[in-house]
Amino acid sequence: MKAKAFKTYLRPVVFMADLTNPERRLLAAMQGRHGKWTLEEILDACNWDDQAIAVAAGHGLANHGLVTQIENSSSDVILGSEGEKAAKEGLLEARLWSFIKQNPDASMKDLSSSFERHEAGPGVGLLKGLGVSIQGGKFTCEDSDSVDAEIAARSEFISNPSIDSGLYEHFKGRRNLIETVESIERTWEITSSGKSIPASELKEVERIAEITPELLQGDSWKEAEFRPYDVTLEATIPRTGRSHPMQALIERIRSIFLEMGFSEIVDDYVQTAGWNMDSLFIPQDHPAREMQDTFYLDEPKSIKINPELLASWKAIHEHGGDTESTGWGGEFSEEISQKGLLRTHTTVNTIQYLAENPKKPCRVFAIDRVFRKESIDRTHLPEFHQIEGIIMEPGANLGMLVTTLKTFYEKMGYPEVRVRPAYFPYTEPSLEVEVKWRGKWLELGGAGIFRPEVTEPLGITDPVCAWGMGLERLAMLVLGLDDIRQLYISDLEWLRNQPIL
Ligand code: PHE
How would you class 48 by CB atoms within 10 Å of its CB: exposed for 0-12, middle for 13-18, buried for 19 or more? Predict the structure, then answer.
């Protein structure tokens, strides 16, 4: 019998939230009766039928220093396969001996024919060990009483095996008659700190492991305890489907503008040079209109534009029309105006929206794709996105425009914004918007107030604040990129590791 007290870790204070419900139940039971508790007693007192719960609770309380756990490991003897057989049919030497006593003249041959072949030989060996010998072909024995007594003792052992018996060693030496098994018996005893825990603190409580919306609707959580989590443990990152960072960024920008009272407009990216440039008073000989800068289409090569509109653009471009402007001079080509192209900026969306709604004050935005013949490098792509917007209302002015853009970038997380004078053929005054990032000012877009050359032919009378900004530039800031191409190469590892925007 070996007995060793389990190590207990005594802590000065045990926080009740540290005890599991089974630990509380067990400690409460043990406070009711001090002294040793066996597993059976615990199962009974705590109304459990799962030994594992009882052992875990006892172990847990021992770790808290509230109980002592004593382990007694003991060896026991049970019958082996031959032992089971002997228990039913009798030990081999007992069967042989009673045969010899009944047949005093029996020879070795008789024995062999009355018993199994593999029994006779070893059986005779066992009898010889007890003092039986063969003389003149017959079995004789000087002290048959002692043989009787020894066989009776052995039979008794088989019917009631015990490790403490003197015959244990004898049977250990015989094949498959007995087996020795180790067993551990645990007992638990409450410690003085276990006794000192007030019973009121051992009430079992519902422990909440997951906070759900349903849970928060009721009041039950107010009384409940929450299962503590160790947030410093390593955990695997869940790999689930998610939006591409560009899409996520678009969604975020969209909700900011919607929140600021803007409505979204969407339009086709196949447009005419007339709407993309002429309506915006971009001269027909402007370098940006060249083949090497703009994608003109073969199909549709040209798209019809309302002749009245063409006539008013012609007048504006050639001499300023009814405005005070002198226009660009030269000759305006209606053919050039009707050329099909891929839009080079989203200003083509807002200007068409205004042409359709020239009198209705509005705040609209678009986040859409534009195309320019750029060679691809670290900061350029031939296909990219712009964030476009306008405010048209009586009294709209430059201050309102700057405030709107500052508010937008502030909501995006860039509070430092500045504007600088710039030039666009369609706005006056014109601005460049810059955002401070890692100590440097970065240009993110253009803005201004539409010129009369743009608004008058369309019948617009209120001032229009307008802006157009690069989405990919902003994405580079948000995601901390120094190469714009990273956004579109579908690098799964990179995509997985992007922040949630
Ligand atoms: N369309 C301009 C660009 O593509 C930006 C801009 C829009 C400037 C509206 C002024 C007003 O850069």
Answer: middle
